[in-house]
Amino acid sequence: MKIAILTSGGDSAGMNAVVRAVVKVGILKGCETWVVREGYEGLVRGNTEAVSEQSLDEEPIELPDNASTDGSSTNLIHNLRFGDGDLLKDGTGDHPGARSLKGRYIVRAGFDDVRGWFAEGGTLIGTARSKTFRTQEGRLQAAYNMIKEGLDALVVCGGDGSLTGADVFRAEWPKLVETLQSEGRITAEKAKLHAHLRIVGLVGSIDNDMSMTDLTIGAPTALHRICEAIDNINSTASSHSRAFVLEVMGRHCGWLALLAGVSGGADFIFIPERPPTSQSWEDEMCDCIHRHREVGKRKTIVIVAEGAIDRNLNPIKADHVKDVLTERLGLDTRVTTLGHTQRGGRPCAYDRVLPTLQGMEAVETLLEATPTSPSYMIGIQENKITRVPLMEAVAMTRAVSAAIEAKDFEKAMSYRDPEFKE
Ligand code: F6P
């Protein structure tokens, strides 16, 4: 089996560990492993004809016993590690590494190529939000490029949008193959050989916003970053007896804000899933913080999830929270928006372990896939690596957002935690 892996959507710590695990385990299981640069965009761009002639397709499959010594099947992606070349501009940089990647978006990867990747932040193979892959024409080209390189399995690591894209691609695959054959772009023999696509999804997102899994890859590291930031802010806040309002990422999910608040000792937390219970969150927050100050606290920390809303579904913004604290409680208040510092940087230990275990499971899942089995998403539930039907997880994730939009917070929480009671 020839497996390709891509990372898609917002990057997250741990994505490189996924690539490393899939490449290494894939090879150990006797597969050929490839990486796709720049997410789905790379799949659409593929390898130019000239480069494809030098394709490594015909090289012998790398075997485990030579993998540790001479496993560098391409050496091409070694260069990605050092950030050489503007990859989205098609490797037009001056560095030899950048030149060697010119016109190559689908690249064979060996053991040595991914050595040490578990400790690298972001995604070394790049990610992009591809507009072309959203079109059928783009997906047709992507299918052609995969077949051209002889690939029959795809691992996608990304958020719910990226995983939905993978499932759509798989569902459409037979039709795409038929079209390619009828247009004379592939032979009947190739069409038969590539009649089905095997796919598997892993959830890479700092937001921890996917249903049917307890944790997404990158969320623990982001939480750790926020925690460190709160520790740093605590000392300066305390010195000046100030209040700080911290805006944290998470899109429509309050997991990062909630857990950061608990682990950093925040005074008040705003999350989308559970808006303040009273009509006036301003009163509720001020009463709480006033009480804390009364018992002698010298500092105040308020955490606002970027998707936080009030009971009427109006956004709660950090600047407004600051004004309320300043005007109503007379606190010297500052706003800190942590931004992308939450997303980048080295993965914490758990964001190396989780992707490694899930990457192993992803390869097993592909090896066991049949044309009729559903597309799977690899998750973790109650500390066990799981396989769940990908579209069920995506549908439930969307149902949470819909419930929040319909102000049915209890229902939204019940999807995230079936035992939840307000
Ligand atoms: O989904 C990950 C995330 O970091 C969200 O928390 C945030 O809202 C968004 O991506 C930011 O996206 P961008 O990097 O495109 O600004």
Automatic annotation (TrEMBL):
One of its GO terms (biological process) is canonical glycolysis. ATP binds at G10, R129, S130, G159, D160, G161, S162. Coiled coil: none annotated. Homotetramer. Residues 51-74 are annotated as: Disordered. It is an enzyme of class 2 (transferase). Its cofactor is Mg(2+). GO terms for cellular component: 6-phosphofructokinase complex; mitochondrion. The active site is at D207. Catalyzes the phosphorylation of D-fructose 6-phosphate to fructose 1,6-bisphosphate by ATP, the first committing step of glycolysis. It comes from the Eukaryota. Belongs to the phosphofructokinase type A (PFKA) family. ATP-dependent PFK group I subfamily. Eukaryotic two domain clade "E" sub-subfamily. Belongs to the phosphofructokinase type A (PFKA) family. ATP-dependent PFK group I subfamily. Eukaryotic two domain clade 'E' sub-subfamily. GO terms for molecular function: 6-phosphofructokinase activity; AMP binding; ATP binding; fructose-6-phosphate binding; identical protein binding; metal ion binding; monosaccharide binding. Allosterically activated by ADP, AMP, or fructose 2,6-bisphosphate, and allosterically inhibited by ATP or citrate. It comes from Lentinula aciculospora. This is ATP-dependent 6-phosphofructokinase. It catalyses: beta-D-fructose 6-phosphate + ATP = beta-D-fructose 1,6-bisphosphate + ADP + H(+).
